[in-house]
Automatic annotation (TrEMBL), chains A, B:
<dbReference type="GO" id="GO:0003857">
    <property type="term" value="F:(3S)-3-hydroxyacyl-CoA dehydrogenase (NAD+) activity"/>
</dbReference>
<protein>
    <submittedName>
        <fullName>3-hydroxyacyl-CoA dehydrogenase</fullName>
        <ecNumber>1.1.1.35</ecNumber>
    </submittedName>
</protein>
<dbReference type="GO" id="GO:0050104">
    <property type="term" value="F:L-gulonate 3-dehydrogenase activity"/>
</dbReference>
<dbReference type="InterPro" id="IPR008927">
    <property type="entry name" value="6-PGluconate_DH-like_C_sf"/>
</dbReference>
<dbReference type="InterPro" id="IPR006108">
    <property type="entry name" value="3HC_DH_C"/>
</dbReference>
<dbReference type="InterPro" id="IPR036291">
    <property type="entry name" value="NAD(P)-bd_dom_sf"/>
</dbReference>
<dbReference type="InterPro" id="IPR013328">
    <property type="entry name" value="6PGD_dom2"/>
</dbReference>
<dbReference type="Pfam" id="PF00725">
    <property type="entry name" value="3HCDH"/>
</dbReference>
<feature type="domain" description="3-hydroxyacyl-CoA dehydrogenase C-terminal">
    <location>
        <begin position="185"/>
        <end position="252"/>
    </location>
</feature>
<comment type="similarity">
    <text>Belongs to the 3-hydroxyacyl-CoA dehydrogenase family.</text>
</comment>
<dbReference type="InterPro" id="IPR006176">
    <property type="entry name" value="3-OHacyl-CoA_DH_NAD-bd"/>
</dbReference>
<feature type="domain" description="3-hydroxyacyl-CoA dehydrogenase NAD binding">
    <location>
        <begin position="4"/>
        <end position="180"/>
    </location>
</feature>
<dbReference type="GO" id="GO:0070403">
    <property type="term" value="F:NAD+ binding"/>
</dbReference>
<dbReference type="InterPro" id="IPR006180">
    <property type="entry name" value="3-OHacyl-CoA_DH_CS"/>
</dbReference>
<dbReference type="Pfam" id="PF02737">
    <property type="entry name" value="3HCDH_N"/>
</dbReference>
<keyword id="KW-0560">Oxidoreductase</keyword>
<dbReference type="GO" id="GO:0006631">
    <property type="term" value="P:fatty acid metabolic process"/>
</dbReference>
Amino acid sequence: MRTAIIGAGLVGRAWAISFARAGHEVRLWDRDPAALSAALAFADGVLPALAAQGLLRGSEPSAVRALMSPHQDLAEALSGVGHAQESAPERVDLKRALFSELDRSAPPSATLASSTSALLPSSFQEHLQGRARCLVCHPINPPYLVPAIEVVPSPWTSPETVERAAGFMRGCGQNPLTMKREIDGFIMNRLQAALLEECFRLVADGYASAEDVDIGVRDGLALRWSFMGPFETIDLNAPGGVRDYAERYQAMCAGLSAQMDRRVDWSGPVMDAIEADRAGRLPRGDLAERQVWRDRRLMALLAHKRAAAAAIGD
Amino acid sequence: MRTAIIGAGLVGRAWAISFARAGHEVRLWDRDPAALSAALAFADGVLPALAAQGLLRGSEPSAVRALMSPHQDLAEALSGVGHAQESAPERVDLKRALFSELDRSAPPSATLASSTSALLPSSFQEHLQGRARCLVCHPINPPYLVPAIEVVPSPWTSPETVERAAGFMRGCGQNPLTMKREIDGFIMNRLQAALLEECFRLVADGYASAEDVDIGVRDGLALRWSFMGPFETIDLNAPGGVRDYAERYQAMCAGLSAQMDRRVDWSGPVMDAIEADRAGRLPRGDLAERQVWRDRRLMALLAHKRAAAAAIGD
């Protein structure tokens, strides 16, 4: 299928890798030619690393790279596409205008998806004649390393569009979750916010350090979450499954959550302690280098998950 | 070092494996001889599986197993121990009485640790003459597969006791997090409760299915959390680190958490939907078999994390 990436920044350039890896033609469009060059140079760097981890479906990096082309003309980029993925800055006026252009110029059969995390699809898709074929497909960046994609319909998105977008994402090796209706923060940012609020409270109230909280998640809770998710985890944590778990532990959880009814200012005094903790473990000048480490660990984790699913079951 | 396991049920028998794997002598005590037999039979089953995954530090299963002995006499079990780990049922009267016995019978230099997740150490350790050497070391079961241990002092626990318990846990291959003071749910159950409350709300309010929530965590959020934790994750998610992240995203998170100011009844109508979803993926008769699968995946994940830390860095 031919696809278009609308906006070739940090998010768009990562989508391009995911789409091309699946064998799709990828037309990258950006107003800024430097962004297009940077996106293609980025792919040149990432594709061999993915191949080395077995995350390129057996394709040669050069063959994947050859599917990508840069475009500054929007109509040209959209010509004949089946899926267009918009990844412009998070401004509602900009997205409204851009989606008007997309809806005008893309083939009537094309799915028009936004990568937004901050805006509801209804806030910039309502006015479109083709709003039934528009929705949000929100990645955790970069999607070529993080399978989950949030597929979020506006009230006007057709069920066929949702199914087509989810199917396209599955074909790209993503694992789409399909929301039934839109809500601020979708699923992932809401869950992350819920967890982070309690992380900041615990440090602000002097119960633990940021590192101690990180230990509890990375060497504790998130191990099972990383291959089961929270519902399957509790389903297996009581003899009678999830209903039994709720009966045994709901009162305890309700009591704990009743103590979480206030928030602390993340940028207040607690930030001095958190930043000092982090800086002691990672000098601030090494953040970019550590991001490279993170992506290598993510690639290795994905390779492990695939191997474990094949050997042990999923 | 000689150690004692006080209460050989689900938690105690798992601690025995962690302690013996580190080369410690383990005296298992239980009032119920059947529990002692079951604990040793359990070890006979688990140790070869750990060895196969390289999680036995190169020891032979039989050598680890030989370090364990069953005891029905408490004074005998505690004779000469450096660390005693209580894993009795979660009843405060029972733990108060048991700790009185432990404090009377264990060598003065021994650390007395409880595995409780539901009780604060102050609620059953205040009355003890040796309360300075008492604390909580709370595992996520089983500790031989989940490194994180919550080390929780009561107001009377000495700093030396905290340091000694944490050092002992490190020696057992655990990764202890040290709380500065006690709070209901410690760190891990609080964070899990915060996340679960929003999971149940999202399903109850019709935004997503249980499986879609699980996808968002297992193929999204928890990938990075499983090797970095939440604070390092956000430290790497803004160009200027964690302070920059707070400045960029605090307003969004505050807005989301303001929408989370009510809870839904987990055992109410939402449970029908969640249980139906889970049962469709895992027939209720297969829960025990799936727990075996979970532990095999956990072992493989741990082996992966060690290999990745060695190859890529930690």
